[in-house]
Every structure is written in C-alpha cells, then in structure tokens.
Amino acid sequence: MPVSTVFVTGGSGYIGRRAIAALRDHGIGVTALVRSDRSAGTVSRLGAEPVRGSLTDTDVLREAASRADGVIHLGAEASADAATVDRGAADALQDGVGAGPYVHTGGVWVYGNTGVVVDEDAPRNPPPITAWRLANEERVLARAATGGHPVVVMPGVVHGGGGGLIETFLAGPARESGAVPLIGDGSNHWTVVHVEDIAELYVLALGAPAGSVFAGVTEEHPTLAEIAGAVGRAAGCPGRTERLTLAQAVDRMGPVAEAFALDQRLTGARARSVLGWKPRHTEVLRELAEPG
Question: I need a surface site. Which of 37, 186, 262, 284 has the fewest CB within 10 A?
Fold first, then answer.
C-alpha cells in the first residue's frame, strides 16, 4: 500500500527534524507529535502538522496513527520509566495504524561487544542503559504474526548537523576544556551513521517487509581514539585528550559511558540490499574534523 501520510513522534528532535524533511522531500505528508509551542513551531516550519500530546497520551497516539498511512516512532522518554512509556506508546501507535507500516527505533548498542563485523542476526548482549529495548522490540515485531506491519531501525552512533552524542559528550567538553574525553586507550570501534543518512533510511523502511530489522550504519568502524582525534582538530585542540577510566567516565557522563566503551562493528548491508539505501556521508573522520 502506498504511503502518502505519516505520523511521527520525536519530530522536533535531532533525528526527527531530518526525518520530517526527508519525508517531505519524498512528497509524503507529515503529522508530528509535539508537547510545546516551541516544538509545534519547529515541525510546522518543516512542513508538518503538529499534534498536541506526549508519549504517555496513548489515546492521542492511537487516534493520530489511525489517520495516517504509516508511523515512524522516534520519540523517547528521558526518565527511569523509559521502557514502560516506550512500550505503551508502541502499542497505541500499532493499534492505531493497524496494517500500515510502523517503524520503531532500536539501537545497535543492544549487541554489546561484537569483536568482528556482524549483522542484525548476531547475538545480543546490551549494556544496562539499553537492555530494556530487547523485550520492547520483540513485542513490536510480534505484531507481524497478527496482521501488523512492524519494522525496526537500529541506528548506530548518529553524527552530523551540529548535534548527537559525539557533540554532547566529546566535542562540547573539548571546546570547554581544551581536551577531548577519551575512555581507556580508545582502541574500541564505534559503528556510526550521519543524521541525514539515517533519516533517509527511516523513510525507506516504510516500504520494508513486515518483521524486518535494519542496522542503520555505514561500513566505517573508526576507533574511539580516531574519533577523539578528529573531534579535537575540529575543536581547536588537536592531539589533546583527557584519559578517563570507565568508572571516571560513568561518573562524569552517566551510564552512556558504558555504551561508549563498547567495541562494535556492524554492517548496514541488509538495508542497502533490501531497501536500496545509499548512505552519502561515508567519511566520518573527515566530517568530524571539520570546524563546526
């Protein structure tokens, strides 16, 4: 079934803004969940129609999803109730959209340390910060057996556009202190993706077979030390790092530090072969080294 309208949660966020722009570029009408006047203004300027509510307003989610051909769920609850809120929102959105495509956001951190390059079928061993996603994703995908059309997109570490975790936890502190925080010796690999490329994948995922899972990653697997080096050049402190133990990093950054310390290499070959996804930003270190 062709998709002409999509309801988006998290549309005013870092990835959501690019996803709305990508949807509009494909000629798809967008409605977007918003909680504030500021968010409403943001999505309106991008060409989306605001829908007032939050992820806990399941009646609002269900109704908005029922009026769209498809749903992209990018919203996230930043609290200890993240798992419960995400589960309730996913249920309501899937109830509303019915047999239409429902694209759910996962994340590659659920695979833990991979050692070698792996794909979506690899065993999962998540750090505590993302362990709750496993049960929610299984619940989402189970709808494929009862007439639903779930698809899970699992972004890598998203960069570009002046936002994302690299900006928040590495580049920002580097500009303030003159040194890039580095966990351990930095030899662990990261799996990455540019925000514009992952936004395009979300749009393509609306046409994926029910029950599909896609890692949204490029084939680059830079080490944390290489990323820190590029960030340092962009921040004006080339070669200057502040070594942190994992315990020190957790104390400073919170639980996300445990995910930053993972050694991960995943391939996005499935998205390229099944959906024709063609990431355009494939030189992450060069892009991260450019002054922002």
Answer: 37
Angle between helices 37-45 and 14-25 (to 10 degrees): 30
Non-local (6+) Cβ contacts of 229 within 8 A are 180, 238, 239, 285, 289
Confidence band (pLDDT; 50, 70, 90) for 129?
very high
First-residue to last-residue Cα distance in the chain: 41
As a whole number, mean pLDDT of residues 95-111 equals 97
Phi/psi of residue 103, nearest 5 degrees: -100, 115
Burial 38-76 (b: 16+ CB within 10 A, else e): ebbebbeebebebbebbbebbebbbebbeebbbbbbbbe
* Sign of the alpha-carbon torsion through 108, 82, 19, 1: positive
- Asked if residues 149 and 278 have their Cβ atoms less than 8 Å apart, the reply is no
What pLDDT is attached to residue 189? 98
Calculate helix-pair angle for 82-97, 58-66, nearest 10 degrees: 30
Distance CA 10, CA 42 (A): 11
Token reading at 66? 């029922």
Q: Which tokens is 274 given?
A: 């099944």
pLDDT in tens, 1-54: 589 999 999 999 999 999 999 999 999 999 999 999 999 999 999 999 999 999
Q: How far apart are CA 126 and CA 128, in angstroms?
A: 6
Q: Express each pLDDT in 54-67 by its tens digit.
A: 999 999 999 999 99
Query: At 213, is the secondary structure helix, strand, or coil?
Result: strand
CA dist., res. 234 & res. 289, Å (int): 5
With beta carbons less than 8 A apart as the criterion, state whether 28 and 52 touch: no
**158 beta partners:** 193
Once rounded to an integer, what is the mean pLDDT over residues 210-224? Answer: 97
**In 3D, which of 119, 108, 103 has the Cα closest to residue 151?**
103
Neighbours of 276 (CB within 10 A): 9
